[in-house]
Amino acid sequence: MKAVVITAPGGRDRLEVQDLPEPDLPAGHVLIDVAWGACNWGDIQKRQGVYPDPVDYPAILGGEVSGRVAQLGEGVSGVAVGDAVAAITGPDMLRGFAERVAVPQAFLIPLAEGLDLRAAAAYPVVSLTAWHLLHTAASVKAGDVILVHAIGGGVGLALTQLGRAAGLRVIGTVGSEGKGRHALDFGAERVIPRDSEDFVAVAMEVTDGRGVDLVIDSLGADILPRSFDALRPFGRVINIGEAAGEPDFAVRKKLYERSTSFAGFEVLHAEPGSPRWRASVKGIAAHIADGDLRLPIAEEFGIDAIRDAHEFLESRRASGKVLIRVGGA
């Protein structure tokens, strides 16, 4: 089978499409004929060798996919061969950019028959991340104001739609003018270009000087410490990444300025297979089926053009998901 392999950490030239044996199928796993995969910033980090969790090289990249069930491992029930599914590929979020992948059953998202598999590949990581940010890592309530950095990206757009569905007011930042169009279309109240506006000032303006209830930060660098200045007293910042660089600041001092709190978040800590995870999968599937959760596709690439996909994602031009056509079903 064809698969995208990173032979050793480094530049895009380290990416290779190789012909590999099909994967084993352990008990409790489902073998998927992969139609589409989605390329995420974590794939870039794994290629570069800077991903927070260890990666054993060579490795097959790809952490989320869509396709159809090809075979059931021992002990699997409630799913049938031929079913349309989306999935996070497992705890290490690898092996998805291949013609077949074995996935733990707990990581599956069943799809309504007829749902476009191309669109479905965009949902697993970002939609479940957004759901658990709002309902597990934080406990939002109708009327709360949230500030989402990089609101034009996949997680940002999912947060916008799920936040609006929960009755929240959603504002967000983008790197430059024009990248927030989708967020506004999906119900964001205000999108702030960081290159021309002060997001702290805008946050205070839209909350009449009170500050926002929650900030979701995926950028780090100097944006993270300033995010605390946009909070109300007892507000919360949740960090989910450092796409703009590692921050360097005295976090304890910032917390005491408004008695705020700070947390990190990783979606798989929401325990796939647990009752709260099953509730999130059910909720996401319902939103997708109802058409009130939509994620735009920024660009798609064939599996043989994986280096071009990485280049596009690293260019920061994407507003929406970057897809990899594997089987193309």
Automatic annotation (TrEMBL):
Gene3D superfamilies: Medium-chain alcohol dehydrogenases, catalytic domain, NAD(P)-binding Rossmann-like Domain. Keywords: NADP, Oxidoreductase. Residues 10-324 form the Enoyl reductase (ER) domain. GO terms for molecular function: mRNA 3'-UTR AU-rich region binding; NADPH binding; quinone reductase (NADPH) activity. It comes from the Bacteria. The keyword NADP applies. GO terms for cellular component: cytosol. InterPro entries: ADH-like_C, ADH-like_N, ER, GroES-like_sf, NAD(P)-bd_dom_sf. SUPFAM superfamilies: GroES-like, NAD(P)-binding Rossmann-fold domains. SMART domains: PKS_ER (SM00829). This is Enoyl reductase (ER) domain-containing protein. The lineage of its organism: Bacteria, Pseudomonadati, Pseudomonadota, Alphaproteobacteria, Rhodobacterales.
